[in-house]
Design the sequence.
């Protein structure tokens, strides 16, 4: 099947995808699928631009939920060091560093079932402070009720991340402490509060191919579709119930990116967790399949962040530019200066060349 039979027509978001239609996309010969995905991608995005976000954990570990993949759940014995909610000033320092390293969006994540009333004033101050730095803001704090969503929206939060994680059918194998409907309700509250939705899932949770189809259908049929769709590849963590689940085939992962791109043509598809375990060629295939968003670094940033430099080196090899917030000329110049500086140091021993 083809969603681009008439190349003069741009693919538009649809909210009536059926599982059999999406299954048919998955079953296309690989090259045909990649061609369709790249064609749709070019209809709505600059194919050589990737949006860059930075993720900061503002409260780590001791989460009461039982997500079977997660090191932050209090139910599993992992090596993770727990941390209380960060001070607002420390969060703003990290946001400033992220901006200097080229991020346009700053995502703050807390390992909570849901934010408590006592936490909200701090969280709202973080949103306002990061926003004042000229960054887009995103948070992931667990479930939100209508009032909490409204407070965050009023504070200026741009995006709220809440993943579906997997298909509705596979969901109970992964999480039992909140329902699939709870997740959809939070997404609905986020929309009602006027924020943009970031929602995707994790692949490699022991699900079947039909579950991956089902999850993408669920995401695509949200109306409007999520503006941001993170596609994560399970990072197996010692001590969690999914630590020895079978690996997902890498081509299956790339196919998921391509199908997500085709059926959510205007969404940013984010290559998320698991990217550290992908070589440069795999990441390049994901960008070709339509991924156009990544995280720079996953920890509190300092002035030196080799992971970030490695990403910029890959971008340089691929001729990819980082997407800037519209009309932010200063930021574009700053990014250019960073990239130039990195290229100048490319042969230095401190840079790991993943191609060798
Ligand atoms: S709710 Fe989030 S932090 Fe808590 S266990 Fe699940 S994935 Fe981990």
Sequence:
């Amino acid at each position: 099947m083809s969603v681009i039979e008439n190349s003069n027509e741009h693919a538009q978001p649809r909210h009536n995808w059926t599982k059999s239609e999406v299954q048919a996309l998955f079953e296309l010969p690989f090259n045909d699928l990649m061609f369709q995905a790249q064609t749709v991608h070019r209809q709505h995005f600059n194919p050589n631009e990737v949006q860059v976000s930075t993720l900061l954990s503002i409260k780590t570990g001791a989460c009461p939920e039982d997500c079977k993949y997660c090191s932050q759940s209090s139910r599993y014995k992992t090596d993770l060091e727990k941390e209380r909610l960060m001070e607002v000033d420390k969060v703003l320092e990290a946001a400033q560093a992220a901006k200097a390293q080229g991020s346009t969006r700053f995502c703050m994540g807390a390992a909570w079932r849901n934010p408590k009333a006592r936490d909200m004033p701090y969280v709202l101050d973080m949103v306002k402070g990061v926003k004042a730095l000229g960054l887009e803001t995103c948070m992931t704090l667990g479930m939100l009720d209508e009032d909490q969503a409204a407070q965050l929206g009023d504070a200026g939060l741009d995006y709220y991340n809440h993943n579906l994680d997997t298909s509705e059918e596979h969901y109970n194998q992964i999480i039992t402490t909140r329902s699939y409907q709870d997740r959809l309700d939070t997404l609905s509250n986020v929309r009602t509060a006027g924020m943009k939705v970031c929602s995707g899932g994790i692949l490699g949770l022991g699900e079947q191919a039909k579950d991956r189809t089902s999850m993408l259908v669920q995401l695509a049929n949200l109306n409007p579709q999520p503006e941001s769709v993170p596609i994560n590849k399970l990072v197996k963590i010692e001590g969690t119930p999914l630590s020895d689940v079978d690996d997902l085939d890498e081509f299956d992962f790339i196919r998921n990116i391509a199908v997500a791109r085709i059926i959510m043509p205007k969404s940013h598809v984010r290559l998320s967790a698991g990217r550290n375990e992908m070589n440069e060629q795999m990441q390049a295939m994901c960008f070709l399949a339509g991924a156009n968003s990544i995280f720079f670094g996953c920890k509190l940033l300092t002035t030196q962040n080799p992971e970030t430099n490695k990403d910029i080196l890959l971008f340089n090899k691929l001729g990819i530019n980082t997407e800037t917030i519209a009309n932010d000329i200063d930021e574009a110049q700053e990014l250019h200066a960073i990239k130039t500086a990195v290229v100048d140091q490319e042969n230095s021993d401190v840079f790991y060349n993943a191609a060798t």
